[in-house]
Amino acid sequence: MEQKFRTAVKIPDFRYKTGYAHKSMFMGSCFTENIGSRMAALKYPVDINPFGILYNPESVANGLKILLNGRKFSQNDLVYHGGLWHSFSHHGRFSGEDADAALQQINERLEFSSTFLKTADFLFITFGTAWVYRYIKTQEIVSNCHKIPDNEFLRSRLNVTEIVAEFRQLIDEIRFVNPEIQIIFTVSPIRHWKDGAVENQRSKAALHLAIDEIIRSYGENCSYFPAYELVMDELRDYRFYAPDMLHISDVTIDFIWEKFEHALIDAESRQISVRVQKIVQAANHRPFNKNAPEYNRFLLQMQEQINKLEKEFKNIDFTGEKVYFFGLEK
Q: pLDDT for 17-76, tens place per residue?
């Protein structure tokens, strides 16, 4: 009898799958960026975290509402601290020394993502924590405290009822403008250790219970991908973590990506991605001699492959690769 040395997590059989013919938006914690960036690198049509990393359900919901409403930010939406202008709805990557420049970056991104969401086929949402911080001056729940002193915030934990009520209303609003969108929830396997071991577990439990209730309300239009369980159960070993013992390692991300890819990306797209990856990798290598006949033959092969893929799939964008192969650097 074959011995088993780990517990395998069963991945659901997803009825709907994304791919090169579909647009996918990713919103939420850094785990969302790990998977979304894998798809972006393979030229899938994706939009990843237009507000930057968002950890709690309230901030994710707030971001999606802003996109649905097509809202634009003004200087009244910014706060100045530490020599930078910040938005409480955004990650620090959108902060800047100049308010106008920060607003331009924010609003250009929002304009693109607002249109993207309304035409997206899939929305992947990752919750990281149920703990939130409320800015005392305005009573708003913030996405990022931007290193403003702790005494200017009130800290609390969202409960299941609050999360469910927020997202039932939100999903109804999303489906009103985009009825066919499929929504897939995940819970980040990254632990928020500053909350403490016990409080982190309670937080994750609230997220799981809330997602379960939301999915039950919408049937086949919402589903859950068990990223959290893959790490906590199938990879139950600290060798799958980064040196800080909290974040997951590249090996773990590879493992989850493989599970995600086979579960949620259609078979044809997975085959096409192999061809795409070869072109992307080729563009990342610098030739020894650009004047060699072999390199010219290589360029012709690349041009043929790119033209063929772009003809087959209108959503694949090889602009960067074409500039490298056939533009000024040729």
A: 999 999 999 999 988 889 999 999 999 999 999 999 999 999 999 999 999 999 999 999
**298: Cβ contacts below 8 Å, ≥ 6 apart:** 282, 287
Residues 6+ apart with CB under 8 A from 189: 31, 227, 228, 230, 231, 232, 248
Cβ atoms of residues 216 and 223 within 8 Å: no
CA torsion, points 25, 26, 27, 29, in degrees to nearest 10? -170
C-alpha–C-alpha distance, residues 48 and 55, integer Å:
14
Distance, CA of 317 to CA of 67 (rounded, Å): 24
Q: Which amino acid type is present at position 248?
A: I
Q: Give CATH for domain 24-265.
A: 3.40.50.1110
The pLDDT, as a whole number, for residue 329 is 43
Q: Where are the domains of the chain?
A: 24-265, 267-330
